[in-house]
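Async update (no meeting this week)

Hi team, since we skipped the sync, here's where things stand on the single-chain job. The sequence we agreed to prioritize is pasted below, unchanged from the tracker. I ran it this morning and attached the output directly underneath so nobody has to dig for it. Comments welcome in thread, and please keep replies under the output.
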Amino acid sequence: MGEEVKSSRQESRAGKWLYALTVSLMVTFLGVLAISFTMSRLHFGSDVLRGLCLTLEAVSAFAGAMLLGKRMMSRRFLWGLLLGLIYFLVLFLAGRILSGSWNPEAMLPLALCAAGGMLGGMFS
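Output:
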């Protein structure tokens, strides 16, 4: 009986993680759609686009970490930080696979995702 409870608890923790990461990725998807629509109408430069994308990454990590922090109930900032790092890793690997090249400017998005995740966990 004790093993069933432990197994159930681990599954629910994994479910919490998957839910929070999915929310972060959905916020990113919706944000990219909004940026694309705005860009097609306003024709702004690449500097503005980069700033919007960096902001979107931080906001997405913040949103997922807030949900994860509410569900975990303890050490929220650490869970948020970890979610931000995992979120960055997912984005980084997807970009690496799609573009096939290494971007040396990846440290700023890493810091923003980690900070956004940690803040989201703290404010949850």
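Quick observations from my side:
The chain has one domain: 2-123.
Helices lie at 2-42, 46-72, 76-99, 107-123.
Reply here if anything looks off.
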